[in-house]
Specification:
GO cellular component, one term: plasma membrane
Organism: Paracoccus zhejiangensis
Pfam families: DctM
GO molecular function: transmembrane transporter activity
Radius of gyration: 26 Å
Number of strands: 0
Distance between the termini: 33 Å
Structural class: mainly alpha
Number of helices: 33
Main location: membrane
Length: about 700
């Protein structure tokens, strides 16, 4: 039923956007060398996370960036089949990146002593650091982010010549280089710190779970639960992508993994290619807001705000559920309108059987959630989750060499006790257990194949982390410019001045900024830029801190679904064999809830389980949570019927307009709109009830 690959139609200009890192490591000596560099990168990160190796924060970030440079340039050149001078340049740039990391390490103490008075060599190395970081971002993500960051760097260097309120006092060249290439305000700032700790570890965690069979488990459970329902193929996409979101925070990666199965499945059951691609893109992007892992931005947000990660999870949980419920509702209505039946139940896997066979795969995720909710740091929780996943993979292989029966039970009980010992002795006991299992597998029948699988996961995790890490380094230049020049205050004051007359206009202005930036740059730099500029302004207008940051986070994600440059939709395009632009328009309809939830949360923070807002003050916190969730669900329901035009039977245009009016008035938070919205919803429900026995028009 499904095809192994889905090449883009030849000559289709809309399908030209592809992930340059989607292919595996190339064959040959160079490919093997890059593979083992990637493995070394992952092992270094694990050693840092497990405190096997202890380095200063500055050196740790520098070595992380050095590994990124060493792997990025030659790997991209090899995957793009560059030869001759290009390959030489790629390895030269990689060497320069390693040189910068080594200089930061060797000169760490002298650099601190020379702070504010760099010598000539410091300036040269700083310039090399900036050049290699810009070049790495260009080859991985294209021109958009380097151009944006370059504009900020130009402003830092020549701001004294800018007009009006944008004018700066002017900064010496060496001062700008020190700000951007040394210390913790530029490329080695908070984003790279988060990449070098939490983000890399959780990417590895997801890579290991995928290798262990988590995708198959999620897909089988989804097929068993909803595959036989009306429009089951699309519901499988929503459910499986939502489940994938719990372990993978990359929307585009989710599209190209689960989408390879779900998009052809939806098409085979009658869904239009554009709609099938839109559903998968919408559901996959939701992975970045689905706890417990969420996207990389969530970790950066927690670090930026100085709050525990669990607070970000708490704010995201209800909106994430509503987001996926909305996508589920939209595909249900589309299936009803087109009379798309579910799959035959006897042809589907049993959800219970899938859970019974693969329940142990959920254990690392369950422990991860427990640790996060118990107040442990994401770094510790991620390290333990990763170690437990390796325990399962290596332990399952070792157990195969034991005879059936009592001996296997004793083995698993002993392994469980070793795994649980981290609560008493810390995570070093886990790594000692893994070392023992590696030795066991190295000498057991079939164990060496499992070790190869573990090594493959290490390499794939490092490759997946490349674009995230490079983006985190480059956006540090933007943050460095903001802190050096105070440019954020200028834009923030403008937003505040607009908001004094209309908070709604400030929100719309912020939303448009996020979407426009998101057309060319990934979610992480988008969030960092807009949260630096706009989120403090929203806070000044009375929007709670986490809500203001979640507002820009949401629209940074939705930019990947919004025309004309919708990265998630273009990733789905070659699989769906449809124009990325057409997929994008369908995705915007399916993701309607994502556009309204941030606005509703600003006016009623209880939607994100935050205190504040007039509703909480009027009726209490818990009643406010229940009320806003009810209102949001009703609005989503009305919007779906308005867009799709079906509820049991096709709806005439005037009823669709009535449903849309009800949805919009429920979203608004001005006097009488709720009352009008509930009245319109009641009127719509009454009309649907009166039409229940009428035959559908031919």
């Amino acid at each position: 039923m499904t095809e192994p690959t889905h090449p883009a139609p030849a000559g289709d200009p809309d399908l030209g956007l592809h992930d340059p890192l989607s292919d595996s490591f190339p064959p040959g000596f160079e490919g093997k060398l890059l593979f083992w560099i990637a493995v070394a990168f992952s092992l270094y990160q694990i050693a840092i996370a497990a405190h096997i190796v202890t380095l200063s924060s500055q050196v740790q970030r520098a070595l992380h960036l050095g590994f990124l440079m060493l792997l990025c340039f030659p790997l991209l050149a090899a995957l793009r089949h560059r030869t001759g001078p290009w390959k030489i340049v790629a390895w030269l740039m990689a060497g320069l990146g390693v040189l910068v990391a080594g200089y930061q390490w060797v000169e760490y103490v002298p650099l601190m002593l020379r702070s504010g008075a760099l010598n000539q060599m410091d300036v040269i190395i700083g310039v090399i650091a900036l050049v290699t970081t810009f070049a790495a971002a260009w080859v991985v993500m294209g021109a958009a982010l380097p151009l944006v960051a370059g504009a900020f760097l130009v402003y830092a260097l020549f701001g004294q010549y800018f007009p009006g309120p944008m004018q700066t006092r002017g900064y010496d060249f060496a001062q700008v280089i020190e700000q951007m290439a040394y210390g913790t305000e530029g490329i080695y700032g908070t984003p790279l710190y988060v990449s070098a700790t939490y983000i890399f570890l959780f990417i590895l965690f997801g890579a290991f779970l995928e290798k262990a069979g988590m995708i198959k488990l999620f897909t089988d459970v989804s097929l068993g639960v909803v595959g036989h329902k009306m429009g089951g193929a699309a519901k499988v996409s929503v459910v499986s992508s939502g489940l994938m979101g719990t372990i993978s925070g990359s929307g585009v990666a989710n599209v190209v993994t689960t989408g390879q199965f779900t998009i052809p499945l939806m098409k085979s059951f009658g869904y239009r290619p554009a709609f099938a691609g839109g559903v998968e893109a919408t559901a996959s992007m939701g992975g970045q807001i689905m706890p417990p892992v969420m996207g990389a931005v969530a970790f950066i947000m927690a670090e930026t705000l100085g709050v525990e990660y669990i607070e970000i999870v708490r704010a995201a949980i209800i909106p994430a559920i509503l987001y996926f419920a909305s996508a589920f509702w939209m595909v249900h209505l589309e299936a009803g309108r087109r009379n798309l039946r579910g799959m035959a139940k006897e042809d589907l896997p049993s959800a219970w059987a899938a859970v019974r066979e693969g329940w142990y795969l959920i254990l690392p995720l369950a422990v991860l959630v427990y640790l996060l909710f118990s107040g442990y740091t994401p770094l510790f929780a991620g390290t333990v989750g990763l170690a437990l996943t390796m325990f399962l993979i290596l332990g399952a292989s070792a157990a195969l060499g034991l005879p059936q029966g009592v001996l296997r039970y004793i083995f698993w009980i002993g392994l469980a006790l070793v795994a649980a010992s981290f609560l008493e002795f810390g995570n070093k006991s886990l790594w000692l257990g893994i070392a023992a299992l590696l030795a066991w597998n190295a000498i057991s029948k079939g164990g060496r194949e499992t070790i190869v699988q573990v090594i493959d996961s290490l390499a794939e995790g490092a490759k997946t982390a490349l674009p995230v890490g490079v983006a985190c380094a480059l956006v540090g230049i933007i943050i460095g410019t903001m802190t050096l020049t105070g440019a954020a205050n200028t834009f923030g004051m403008y937003i505040v001045s607009v908001g004094e007359n209309s908070l709604l206009l400030s929100l719309i202005l912020t939303m448009l900024t996020c979407i426009v930036l998101g057309m060319g740059i990934p979610t992480i730099p988008n969030y960092i830029i807009t949260s630096t500029i706009a989120a403090p302004a929203l806070l000044d207008l009375g929007v709670p801190l986490i809500v203001s940051h979640m507002f820009v986070f949401y629209f940074g994600i939705l930019a990947d679904l919004t025309p004309p440059v919708a990265l998630a939709c273009f990733a789905a395009a070659p699989i769906a064999k449809e124009s990325g632009l057409k997929i994008s328009f369908e995705a915007v309809k399916v993701a309607a809830a994502g556009f309204v939830i941030p606005y509703m949360a600003v006016y009623t923070p209880a939607l994100m389980l935050q205190d504040g807002g007039p509703l909480s003050q009027a009726i209490g916190y818990l009643p406010a949570v229940g009320y806003i969730v009810l209102k949001c669900v009703l609005s989503i329901g009305l919007w779906g019927t308005a867009v799709i035009g079906w509820l049991g039977k096709p709806l005439p245009i005037w009823m669709r307009l009535l449903a849309a009016a009800g949805a919009f008035t429920l979203i608004a938070a001005v006097p009488m709109t709720d009352e009008i919205g509930f009245a319109l919803a009641a009127l719509f429900a009454g009309l649907i009830w009166l039409r229940r026995d009428r035959p559908a028009p031919a």
